[in-house]
Amino acid sequence: MAPxxxxxxxxxxxxxxxxxxxxxxxxxxxxxxxxxxxxxxAWYLALHQKPLFDEDFEAWVHGPVLPSQYRRFKEFExxxxxxxxxxxxxxxxxxxxxLTEIVDVFGSETAVALEMMTHNELPxxxxxxxxxxxxxxxxxISKESMQSYYKSL
Length: 153
Known about the structure:
Layout: H1 10-23, H2 30-48, E1 57-60, E2 63-65, H3 67-73, H4 93-106, H5 111-119, H6 122-127, E3 140-141, H7 143-151
Antiparallel strand pairs: 1-2, 1-3
Helix pairs in contact: 1-2, 2-4, 2-5, 2-7
């Protein structure tokens, strides 16, 4: 897919997910945040035929990771992300509805359950083709494979 101007940046998407989950009584770890970001991008691609943001996910050992947001919250390791984040709502009602639905559908799952889900889906598996499950990788999960796979569901 050709690069484009972000509709809603990875940082703003992460902030919205963190705030919305906190408002529902759930504090996210970096692992769970990564999976919610992934499903937000994957389903936006499938439903709107364009990415929510331009940055690519990588097929890491524990599932899809958005490197910029992983680094942003790396200090929290496996612990809940407790950083203060100002309230944020997308101006675009389509994006607001989409991200809210992602939390509705996937937010109740544990981080490990979301990791297992991504491990069983074609985009992550294809990006890791031939790479042992326990070996680090920075292989990109293509937006095309995400869009094609989730659109078919």
